[in-house]
Amino acid sequence: MASDSPLWPLLSEAPTAEDLARCVHCGLCLSSCPTYIVTGLEVESPRGRIHMAKLVNEGRSELTPAIQQHWELCLQCRACEAVCPSGVPYGRIQEHARAQLDHAAPKQRGQRRVRKFLLRNVIARPRVLAAAMAPARWYANSFARRLARRSGLLRGRLGAMESQLPRNVGRPYRPANTASPSAAATDETSSGVLFTGCVMGELFGNVHRATERVYARAGIDLRATPGQGCCGALHAHDGDLEFARKLARKNIAALETTTGPIVVNSAGCGAAMKEYGDLLSGDPKWASRAAAFAVRVKDSSELLNDFPGGSFEGRVAYQDACHLAHAQRIREQPRTLLGTLAGCSLVETPGADVCCGAAGIYSLVQSEMSGVLRQRKADQFAAARPDVVVTANPGCHLQYEAAVRQAGIPARVMHLMEVLDEAASSNSQQQD
Fold it and tell me: What is the pLDDT of residue 186?
């Protein structure tokens, strides 16, 4: 296809022929793909979308509205990668496919431009994001929320979005406002960096504070270094690879002079940061720095071998965050940590590792499919009736708040670090 074609303007960002050729169309991915599970359509499966990318890459098809629709319905959960015998880097293929949509979408171009503007100028700008999140934080903790729910006005898509807000939102957590721990690391303690991110710090500040306390009990002193910011995952997933690289460089520059592991309690952020080396592989000035940085990134569940445990009574349903289970291949560590807590009864629900439908901004732009997947989770929760639903990703957390309400059960939704913190606090009170 000619390089000046208006339907494929970014040949430098197109999925590589090498990546596409790794798919042998065996079909083992089909039963793991959420959109295929729901629709049963080949075009909504990983190999179907890869075939379309090949057609466009080879000039045998234009970038049509139908292809755009099939690509955009993908959740990018990467469940297919975890079962693929050929090691197809499907996440990378989808990001590069969407880079074409970002610049030459056949339809809904205005919507994509608005999305790009908001991701760049709200999500990636701490002060703007703080101002945007302030009303949501106030509403979540106010009496007005109860009035709104009783009024019957919260219906349809508005009601679904409102139900995703956590029941209580604590104060935000920002690196610039966080004092360094008073005691320096000793022979008995080691140090690390707490990655705070964007939405995570604004809506889930309590999770960051819980993570600090959990790690302190495990002998690791975490510090939230100023200068860090949004990881760029949402931008990369939406096809804005140029801006994702810009954010990656910013985080590397801010944190590469620190020491110790970079601890991330958001599965999506952690997966993106562990792949900074791949994201910046074509930049000779940053490639080696990105690769060195990525090695230091650890999910918050990876380094707690010395966590003292505690007591946490109740039935707990752990739900695998897609980018933790499928991209980072971390499944057992969270379950092992929960299994050490006295009184904690782990309840495995069917499809705990199937995407909940949150997927970054997916629940906003693909609300119908997101709602179907959320309902599947709600049905599973209604059957299992857990006391607590545990996750490790902010988007999943929001989705499960709505799913629990749909299930009609009084379960709490908690981050893994919040559970461990509460358990350890309970243990400390018993000792006192």
Answer: 46
pTM for this predicted structure: 0.89
Task: Answer positive or negative: Cα dihedral of 6, 10, 16, 19.
Answer: negative
Edge-to-edge strands, sheet with 311-318: 342-346, 311-318, 388-391, 412-415
Here the tokens at position 337 are 């940590």
Sign for the pseudo-dihedral over CA of 280, 238, 328, 53: negative
Query: What is the tally of helices (H) and strands (E) in the chain?
Result: 23, 8
Run of H or E residues at 294: helix 287-296
Q: How far apart are CA 194 and CA 214, in angstroms?
A: 12
Q: What is the DSSP letter of 119?
A: I
Task: Write the pLDDT tens digit of every residue in 151-194.
Answer: 766 666 666 676 777 777 889 998 864 444 433 444 456 899 99
How is residue 65 written in tokens? 């509205």
Count, residues in the chain: 432
Residue type at position 168: N
Tell me which CATH homologous superfamily contains domain 311-431.
Answer: AF0625-like (3.40.50.10700)
What pLDDT score does 135 carry?
85
Taking each helix axis as running N to C, give the angle between helix 394-407 and helix 267-274, from 0 to 180 degrees, rounded to the nearest 10: 150
Asked if pLDDT for residue 1 goes beyond 60, the answer is: no
Q: Residue 191, by phi and psi: left (phi above 0), alpha (psi -120 to 50) or beta?
A: beta
The topology under which CATH files domain 175-299 is Glutathione S-transferase Yfyf (Class Pi); Chain A, domain 2 (1.20.1050)
Q: What is the mean pLDDT of residues 136-150?
A: 76
Q: How far apart are CA 118 and CA 268, in angstroms?
A: 19
pLDDT in tens, 214-223: 999 999 999 9
Indicate the pairing of strand 190-194 with strand 220-223: parallel
For the domain 11-107, what is the CATH code? 1.10.1060.10
* Percent of the chain as helix, strand, coil, to the nearest 5: 55, 10, 35
Residue ranges of domains in the chain: 11-107, 175-299, 311-431
Strands 311-318 and 190-194: unpaired
Look up residue 254 and give its two tokens. 């801010």
- Angle, alpha carbons 383-386-391 (nearest 5°): 110
CA distance 225 to 300: 17
Which three-class secondary structure state does DSSP give residue 152? Answer: coil
